[in-house]
Amino acid sequence: MMEKNNNLVVGMTVFGAIFFIFGFATTFIITLTAPVKAIFGLSEFEAQLLSSAFFIAYPLMSIPTGKIIDLIGYKMTVIAGLILMALGSFIFIPAAKLPSFPIFLVGTFILAVGVVFLQVSANPYVTAIGPSPTASSRLNLTQALNAVATMIAPWLISVAIFKGLNLPNDDNLITSEHGLMAAERVPLPFIAMGIIVLLVAIAIFSIKLPVIDKGSGVKKSIWKYPHVVLGALGIFAYVGAEVGNAGLIVNYLKNSVEGISAEMASTYAAIYWGGAMIGRFFGSFMFSEMKQSKKLSLLIPVLLLAFIAGSFVTDWNWKIGLIFTLVSIANFIIMQIGTGKAAKTLAIFALSAALLDIATTFTTGQVALWSVIS
Predict the structure, then answer these.
(1) pTM assigned to the model
(2) Cis peptide before 59 (omega within 30 of 0)
(3) Which of 85, 194, 285, 336 counts the most CB atoms within 10 A of its CB?
(4) How far is CA 281 from CA 157, 183, 298, 331, 346, in A?
(5) What's residue 49's pLDDT?
(6) In the chain, what are the domain boundaries?
């Protein structure tokens, strides 16, 4: 019994780290479009190719990853994913030193392929390493770590890359002093990430993991299940909106809000992802069969987390933390209006998000800032 508990703790520690890492890598690449735009003097369209190089790996590699799992198994696929992430991270060293935008894209794609390997192969392990009745709790925990990482990554960019740099609103040139300084600062976070994922790969190789049954049931076409297809289309639209906003937010705020530097805009990007984190925490209990009194008791710690997180990433600006908390309360109220029904709540949130994006498009200043973040 003691050995099983130890295996569960070790397994959850390692896979918790994996979920944290690929959440961090995803939003780090998305937010990196702003410094890359400044380094190479790119247009907005060209800068967004960085995000495209990352997310194109999902449709290209998801099905092949399933075939790879059939060949080498889940454990070796996880290890291969971590090694690919490390390789992609280390490619950013020559990409920034030269500097070369095509090499940036190559490194991004290889890193993304590693993330795809992990996305496909890690989830089954989180379910399999412990008792079945608590599998959903383990998945919620790993997803929470993933959400925390998505908030930390933009904040780290503001500290590690943008700190003290004056990047103008118009397209910069690679020959500019601040553009070169930004290029010099890019490799360090990737070196750290590459080393960490290699250490995690060694840990995965060293520990004993349960054998996952690949299943021998009759395979059916997903087209026979309209809810699966519609759900996939819904996720497609949601990810496009989430990533599209996140990829543009730094440069948008620099151009639309007077007095906002690239460094400060990155901290607001962290708050944007923090909103997604708070929403996930709300969703974990709002759509459960938990008593309403219990749900309300969980509201306080989540709002406290929102206040601390919003204050922390803005160098303990309590005013920003308070505004972020009010936005979180608005999210909770919308979920109450949805009466806990997922479809109704989804429709309300979709309409609210669309209206906020429209408001962002036609406004400037503080209204635009909080519209895009909300």
Answers:
(1) 0.84
(2) no
(3) 85
(4) 24, 36, 10, 11, 16
(5) 93
(6) 2-211
